[in-house]
Design a protein that fits this description.
Blueprint: E1 2-6, E2 9-13, H1 17-20, H2 27-35, E3 38-39, E4 42-43, H3 47-60, E5 66-69, H4 76-86, E6 93-97, H5 103-111, H6 128-131, E7 136-140, H7 147-159, E8 161-162, E9 171-172, E10 176-181, H8 185-190, H9 196-202, E11 205-208, H10 218-233, E12 240-241, H11 243-251, H12 257-271, E13 276-277, H13 284-287, H14 309-327, H15 332-339, H16 343-352, H17 365-372, H18 374-377
Parallel strand pairs: 5-10, 5-11, 6-7, 7-10, 12-13
Antiparallel strand pairs: 1-2, 3-4, 8-9
Helix pairs in contact: 3-4, 7-9, 10-12, 14-15, 15-16
The structure holds adenosine-5'-triphosphate and magnesium ion.
Adenosine-5'-triphosphate (ATP) is lined by residues 42-44, 70, 72-78, 182, 222, 258-259, 262.
Length: 382
């Protein structure tokens, strides 16, 4: 196991026995990688990301299963797309968001179904695994998959055969599997929510993406990159990023990672009048240094007899969720956006915390349903 340290964050990039057999990169290639800041559409100068890029290069040439781990907005989907693009696989990349589709629909979307196999199955359907034959299937938010589907997926990974719902025949598939999650799958295994055997099947080659706050100068490199891109799109001169703003950017914790930075820069590029970004242009939470400062009420030091960590964190989460839902009048889609969470993650937390006032079906249900529509997530691309 190789360990890299960035600031106070320890990031481990484990290499399993199978990935150790990957062809080594020539030293000269690794050196040149360290100098490059752009890789398959991703910008980074950070050694941890450079390491992830070199794993991508190596693993792309194999058929090994890859598990991409990282907080929301760290670039997991970009990495999956890069692996497919750099591979020799001629088929499609088929993304599936396992967290956004109800279990019954997900089963038939993944494996297909026979005509008449359930109410509403008026015609046979080809599953996503079959559509990805010769290519790659990207199982996003794998940590949300139900136990029943975890068993079925394990069989597919072991046998490379799928069995459509309501069918007795099996179909051979030649598919490279890439999975991603922002959950700590080891914790999910410990808690009994994720199968251990499936976890090991998936993490043949794990790729850990460090959070933006642990990437050092990347915050500014990316901020400038997004600023140039946005200003170009807006046909306006590129805004400079003032020194004081740069300091605030470096001090902030970026819980939504690169996505949060990208969206903020887009907003600022549209709204800012001057030739450069100054402190007055920044939202309040950034001026306070850290979004969490606005809501945490913890003193400077731990009380002498310690704290109930889980209860405190739970209370903090509940408060953030309640504040966001109150702000959006109970609209979960909008609240999830405010919290930079997936809507499904938010809904799950609301249920787990029994926040009954937000659990009933509201007028937003149609937009919620629209958001969760398989069509949004299952469009075969590339
Ligand atoms: N290194 C990078 N360089 C440039 N843009 C990036 C980089 N990493 C991420 N992005 C951009 O940030 C956004 C989020 O990336 P992506 O969707 O791949 O993250 P994710 O980890 O899959 O997020 P989530 O867990 O929420 O699905 C995208 O718009 C992507 O283009
Ligand atoms: Mg994603």
């Amino acid at each position: 196991m190789q360990t890299f340290v960035a600031g106070s964050t320890q990031v481990s990039s484990e290499v399993t026995s199978e990935s150790r057999q990957l062809p080594p990169l020539p030293a000269s290639r690794i050196t040149s990688n360290l100098r490059q800041t752009s890789f398959a559409g991703m910008i980074s100068e950070c050694p941890h990301m450079q390491r992830a890029f070199s794993i991508v290069e190596r693993v792309a040439r194999t058929d090994s299963t890859v598990l991409i781990l990282g907080e929301s907005g760290t670039g997991k989907e970009l990495i999956a797309r890069a692996i497919h693009r750099l591979s020799c696989r001629t088929g499609k990349l088929v993304p599936v968001n396992c967290g956004a589709i109800p279990e019954e629909i997900l089963e038939s979307e993944l494996f297909g179904h026979e005509k008449g196999s359930f109410t509403g199955a008026i015609a046979s359907k080809v599953g996503r695994f079959q559509l990805a034959d010769g290519g790659t299937i990207f199982l996003d938010e794998i940590g949300e998959m139900s136990p029943k589907l975890q068993v079925k997926l394990l069989r597919v990974l072991q046998e490379r055969k799928v069995e459509p719902v309501g069918s007795t025949k099996t179909i051979d598939v030649n598919v490279r599997v890439i999975a991603a999650t922002n959950k700590d799958l080891r914790e999910e295994v410990k808690a009994g929510r994720f199968r251990e055997d499936l976890y090991y099947r998936l993490q043949v080659v794990p790729i850990d993406l460090v959070p933006l706050r642990a990437r050092g100068n990347d915050i500014l490199v990316l901020a400038k990159h997004f600023m140039s891109r946005c200003c170009e799109n807006l046909a306006r001169p590129v805004l400079e990023i003032g020194a004081a703003v740069q300091e605030k950017f470096k001090a902030y914790s970026w819980p939504g990672n690169v996505r949060e930075l990208e969206n903020l820069i887009e907003r600022l590029a549209i709204l800012c009048d001057g030739p450069s970004l100054e402190l007055r242009d920044l939202p309040d939470y950034l001026l306070q240094g850290n979004a969490s400062c606005a809501v945490v009420e913890i003193g400077e030091e731990l009380p002498a007899d310690g704290v109930d960590f889980n209860a405190l964190v739970d209370r903090f989460e509940t408060r953030l969720i309640t504040m966001a839902l109150n702000r959006t009048s109970g609209n979960k889609k909008a609240a999830a956006r405010l919290l930079q969470l997936n809507r499904t993650t938010l809904v799950e937390k609301i249920k787990k915390k029994s926040l009954t006032q937000f659990m009933e079906v509201s007028s937003e249900s149609s937009s919620d349903a629209a958001e969760a529509s398989p069509r949004d997530y299952l469009t075969a691309k590339e």
